[in-house]
Each structure stands twice: as C-alpha cells, then as structure tokens.
Amino acid sequence: MTEKPLSSTTGKNTFRVDRQVVLPFRKSVEIAFQSIRVRFFRSLITTMSLVLAVSFLSFASVNTDAANGLLQSGDPAQRQALIRAGHDLAETDQTVGSSPKQRWIVMLSLVVCVVGIVNAQLMAVTERFREIGTMKCLGALDRFIVRLFLLEAFMQGAVGAAAGAVIGALFALGNGMFRFGTLAVTAISWSDVALSVLIAVGTGCLLSVGGALYPALLAARMQPVDAMRAEH
Amino acid sequence: MEEETKKIVRVVDVTKSFRMGKVTVEALKGVDVEIPTGYYISIMGPSGSGKSTLFNMIGGLDKPTTGKVFIEDVDIAQLDAYELAWLRCRKIGYIFQTFNIIQVMTALENVTLPMVFAGMNNDEAVEKGIQLLDLVGLGDRFQHKPFELSGGQQQRVAIARALANDPSIILADEPTGNLDLSTGEEIISLLKRLSRERMVTVISATHDFKMLNVSDQVIWIRDGRIDKVEDRDELSISVGGIDEKA
Lengths: 232, 246
Prior knowledge:
Strand order of the largest sheet of chain B: 6-7-8-3-9-10
Oligomer: heterodimer
Distance between the termini of chain A: 37 Å
Structural class of chain A: mainly alpha
Number of domains of chain A: 1
Strand content of chain B: 25-35%
Number of helices of chain A: 9
Largest sheet of chain A: none
Strand content of chain A: under 5%
CATH superfamily of chain B: P-loop containing nucleotide triphosphate hydrolases
C-alpha cells in the first residue's frame, strides 16, 4: 500500500486507480459459444424464425435465378412456361426480376423475424440479469457485455442464416425441376445462385446482430446494484 | 489520523435518498463510518434500516446523494466507469447471498474470470484459480458446473472468485443467508481465516448472529443512522442479551 500524503485526503494519488480492464476477443468468443451451447434448445428456437425468414429470402432469389437461366436458354416454350408460372414477362424482356409483391412479402417476413429476435433477446437479457450484474461486479465494462451478446447473436445468426439459405436454395431448385424439368437446373447460372445464397446469409447475420443490439445495450447499461436487488 | 491502523474505507456524512414514484425515501440520513484495514466488520440491522444501501455504497455499487465515500482515500464519486470497473475488479471482492456463480461456467472458469478481466494470461490464471479453489477446500472439484455443487460449495467458489485478484476488501452480502446452520458456520470461519491470513478487510451485511462471534467490529444500523459501533471486547455482553431475547 502506498504512503498517505500528509495533508491531502481527497486526492486520487494515494493509490493509482487504473483504467485497464480487458476481455480478450478469443475469450469473449469462448464465453459466447459456451452460453449458446448451454442454452442450446432455447438458442435453437430463437434461431428458428431466422432460419425460416432467410430460407424464404433465399428461395425467392434463387427462384428468380432459375427463371433467368431458363430465359437465357432462348427456348420460346420456356418463355411461355414462365409466363404461365406467373412471371411478368414483356415480349422483349431478357431478364426476370422479382415482382414487387414478392419483394414485399420477403420484406415482411424479415421484419417479423427481427421483431421475433428482439423479443427473444429481451427475454434472454431479463433471464440473465443476475449473470450480467455479477460480471459487472467482477469488473466487466459495459462493452464486454454488449460484445458478448452481439457475438452470441452473430454466431446464432451465422449458423441459422447459413442453414436457412441452403434450405431455401435447395427448395427453389427442387421447385424449378418440378415445374420446368431439368433445364431449370442445367441452364441456371451457378454464380448467381451463390451470390443469392451469400446475400441471404449476410442479411440473416445482419438481422440477428441488429435485433440483439438494443437488448444488449439495455443489458450493459444495467447497474450492478440492480442485479443484486433483482434476486430478492 | 493515527498511523498504526489505516482506514481502508471512510464514509463521511453520507445521505442517500431514493425516489419512489412521487415520494422520496431517505434510506441513509447522515452516516459516518471508518473501517480499519484488516478488520472483520459486520453491518447489522433490520431490513429497511438502510443496511444494504450503506453496504452498496461502501462497495462502490451505488453513489451517495450527499457526502463522500473513500476507499483507500479515493473518493469513489469521482471515478469514471473504467476506473470503477477497475476498482471492482482489483480492489473489491464480492460475495452474494445467492452465490451468483455464473451458471454456464465451471467452478474454475468462474474463479479465473476476474483474473482474465485483470489481464492475467490464461495459464497463470488457471494455476492461481486451482490454488484458490484448493484454499477454500474445493481442490478436486474445479471442473464441476455450479448445478453439480451444493450451496455451501457454491459459496466457496464465490469466495475463491472474490479473492482472485487479491483484493483489499471483501464485501459479503448476507453470505450465510441461503445456507443451513453448519454450512453457514463453515463459511464464516473460512472468511475469518482468510481475512486473518491475507489481511483482507471483510465487510458483511448480515442478520446472522453467528457472525458476531468472529467480527472485530459490529456496526448497528437503525432507521438510516448508525445506532452503535461495538468493538469485539464489548460484544460478548450484547450477544448474551440478544440470545436471551431470541
């Protein structure tokens, strides 16, 4: 212990209060991963809505990719088949876009999914009040808590979105084969499919992290004293 | 101020009021306390007396409305979030009534977490964590998850965790409140032993009269004020008095 200055009792210089508190990134990942593993079933349910929404997004865009492939094959019969299947195609159109209605529905499903994620994460935060408060008592900074929650959300999001995107794409391809025969798969541009899947995965991660942001900030801002109070 | 016993915590004319809807409740009405280094202190008082408020104030968990709290001569009201986190991490160890072991981590991980925050490298932290668990009598159980441990064992983990960064103060909030009689006694004597061996100041808020036997000083709180402060030698008389009533 350092020597007390003779006159001053208010100064900060009697012992040095440092500012250095750390949580290495690797350790954060470890803790976040563990939290997911322990609450695996709950995480699974939280992720489920994301899987569904992302697979719908992926389904819609891979469907469009398949339609484009068919169109590019140059077969007039395929053009007629596409129009019969509900695609809006003018005489001269060389590409198929997604219809506004389709985009609207995809957007809606994503919004619903985000609301679901925010809801689930808020519940998770309430459930873990004490854990968060304890960590803060042990010296965790606000941003450690935010980081842990966001990392968890990101991992869940990445796995869920990847699964969803693949499921959606496979479903779209299967659907194309069923309707238009093997040409739907042979004529398709695989780089477009890959891009669609990637975009779907990216969107899923973004939504998951975005949905967790507010609950994470809420958790981090909690005072440790409230955590102690919450248990009574 | 005398030099032989340094005051590790000084509470100077502290008041604290809470707003509850439209009413303002005064939990503390001007409290002065000085706690000497290395003492084992019990803060006693009925619930609603301001005991927990004072306790939280000493632990830097709450800031006073007026007055000042010094921990090792540092005014905690002047610390920013980083410095407060550092203080909680390095200088103060917390023990809770409900143990508050982090459920998703093993006993060892719980103990090493504060050391990770303090920037210690992993191998050192693990080694020290095992030593500390050994010290509290859980040497063979460091890989256990909290739900595999009894209440008393969980509280031992919490004590090991509180000691992780060699704090100068251990704050124990009703540490025996959720334990049965004999386990409670074990925990109390463990705290007392550690306090003596490591020169750690232990401050506990409690209802538990078993605590009185080991306390160097008891601070009685009543109605937001200090009722009386008793040193150990005066204590035996009043303990007798209480036992008669109980």
